[in-house]
Amino acid sequence: MAVWIKSMGRPNILLTGTPGVGKTTLGKELASRAGMTYINVGDIAKEGGLYEGFDEEYECPILDEDRVIDELEDKMSAGGVIVDYHGCDFFPERWFHVVFVLRTETVFLYERLQSRGYRGKKLQDNIQCEIFQTLYEEAILSYKKEIVHQLPSNTPEDLERNLDQIMQWIEQWMEENN
Predict the structure, then answer these.
(1) CB count, 10 Å around CB of 56?
(2) How confident is the model at residue 6 (pLDDT cuts 50, 70, 90)?
(3) What is the pTM of this model?
């Protein structure tokens, strides 16, 4: 199955990290600059009703991961896709050429999540998730360590540096694989 990933004209990229780190902002701008397809898994799930229930404690729907995989399989095999989601351990390893885990200092993250209406346990658990590098750990356990990279995402300058760095990575990948 991993063979199809080599024949694509453009790479597939996963952007992951704690909610509020800037995945959506980075993903949309990156897709625009690189001429790639941007997929926000939360939006796809909402549009398709790809849920298996509701978590009362965190006040959010529970993603049906199998249905998400089925929904995205054809798009991923075409290549040139940027996927944005806070979790990553359920995506097939063969889908991605590179994984970028965005990291944000907790003082910035706290403000961003509060402005989104996060409160109580939901707010604290997401801050702890960032402190303990939970999503970075998930990424390095789910993919080859050499394709997983952490990027700081605190300021507009970080955003620009990350865009430049990922664009360089895409250009190099395309030179080496086409």
Answers:
(1) 7
(2) very low
(3) 0.94
